[in-house]
């Protein structure tokens, strides 16, 4: 197998499933660390602070620092900051989104806003949606962290960011700019953070529709691991295949 | 003009605009009352108790009793009750919806539900949406009071029932059965209440996409009055025209 110099790695379904470790993936990450091969965890979870994501990984014995976590909230904040440094942003989301926006020096406000940015918000209220809709109608640019419509949980599939975001797109008729996987934008930003080039980096994940399509859309190699969402039979119907497909990351021999 | 024996009359944009009366409409309703011609106010507002709607009308000097108000919540409750009397219903909505469901003898519950019914709910929470999504995925029938995506207010257009409802349809992939205008179902139920036949009844409203299409879909005559949403120039682009079109209801001479 090609000897990649950079690794973008999805989390849920790839490194763990909920609270359960995926041992082969953890062994693989440890091997990357041992060989000093750069890797970055790339997640569409917009709600968490990267420090807390790293903490969870460390508790699972996965070598991870806060700097090795890149969330879609961080990608979203970077995207807005590049368009308009110090922009006025109305944010509907959780701690991870607010942290990322503030870290990029963006102003979190409720009026005269340049951007309405929305992610998963389990404290959603009608008033938040009302302000978002009014500001988009007044001309604010609408940006969304990710389009995942369902959120796996122990209770079953709960509403994901994409379904909450549809309130604003349906009521205003304005589609948001999506940032998270499968968009190329989050992968391109992750490569900047990782410091590797497109042709030497691979995107690893369990979900064809987000992880693998993100790799394909960004023009980098991809590896689908059948430890989560996408099954062998799902892949059979798909035209553009991942670069590599494996049952588990134990199959991958680093050279 | 044809001498109709029954009148279905929209409220906002037709009889009043927000808190402002439309005098020609009020004079028209008073004339109906004087002549003992049956009329029913037909509204896609699912949130209010019909008693409060009648109260508001009376304060505006419009002759109206609670029995002359038919809301989409009442139509929705009737629809469910006809499908399954005493059904177990999980309801996401305001006072008007809960009242209507209880009046029809339906059981409002949060588990083992037969129907998930949703209308505008300005106290929406993630937990309500989560329960709705889980129950629809488990097989509950999904019913929605109305599909209006925007709600006019003094602040501008706020999210309407249809945009909130999209959270559940997007996350589950299940489209709800809509009951309110422009669906025929609410008009057919209103005719039952009014006690007049299709060929002697007219639907009066200001909104082509809801009021007039409801009349057309139900196969009854319609009258568009240009006191609200639909302007003359909007109508020019439309193929199926209302039976009658007027600047105000002052143009209508009852025989």
Automatic annotation (TrEMBL), chains A, B:
One MF annotation (Gene Ontology) recorded for this entry: metal ion binding
CDD domains registered for this protein in UniProt: HAD_Pase_UmpH-like
Residue positions binding substrate: 181
Co-factor remark: Divalent metal ions. Mg(2+) is the most effective.
Required cofactor(s): Mg(2+)
Annotated positions binding Mg(2+): 10, 12, 206
Matches recorded under InterPro entries: HAD-like_sf, HAD-SF_hydro_IIA, HAD-SF_hydro_IIA_hyp1, HAD_sf
Active site location: 10, 12
Gene3D superfamilies given in the database record: HAD superfamily/HAD-like
Key words, A-Z: Hydrolase, Magnesium, Metal-binding
One of the record's GO cellular component terms: cytoplasm
Family membership noted in the UniProt record: Belongs to the HAD-like hydrolase superfamily. NagD family.
Protein name in UniProt: Haloacid dehalogenase
């Amino acid at each position: 197998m090609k000897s990649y110099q950079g690794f973008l790695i999805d989390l849920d379904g790839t490194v763990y499933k909920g609270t359960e470790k995926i041992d082969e993936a953890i062994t693989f990450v440890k091997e990357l660390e041992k060989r000093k091969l750069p890797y970055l965890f790339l997640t569409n979870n917009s709600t968490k602070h990267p420090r807390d994501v790293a903490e969870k990984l460390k508790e699972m014995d996965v070598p991870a620092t806060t700097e090795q976590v890149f969330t879609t909230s961080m990608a979203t904040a970077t995207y807005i900051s590049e368009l308009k440094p110090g922009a006025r942003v109305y944010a509907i989301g959780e701690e991870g989104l607010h942290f990322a926006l503030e870290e990029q020096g963006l102003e979190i406000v409720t009026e005269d806003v340049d951007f309405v940015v929305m992610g998963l918000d389990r404290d959603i209220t009608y008033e938040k949606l009302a302000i978002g809709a009014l500001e988009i109608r007044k001309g604010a640019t609408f940006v969304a962290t990710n389009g995942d419509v369902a959120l796996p949980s122990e209770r079953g599939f709960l509403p994901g960011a994409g379904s909450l975001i549809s309130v604003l797109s349906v009521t205003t008729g304005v589609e948001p700019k999506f940032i998270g996987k499968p968009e190329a934008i989050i992968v391109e930003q992750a490569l900047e953070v990782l410091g590797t080039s497109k042709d030497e980096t691979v995107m690893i994940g369990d979900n064809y529709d987000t992880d693998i399509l993100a790799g394909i859309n960004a023009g980098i190699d991809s590896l689908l691991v059948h430890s989560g969402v996408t099954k062998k039979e799902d892949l059979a119907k798909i035209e553009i295949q991942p670069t590599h497909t494996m049952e588990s990351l134990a199959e991958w021999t680093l050279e």
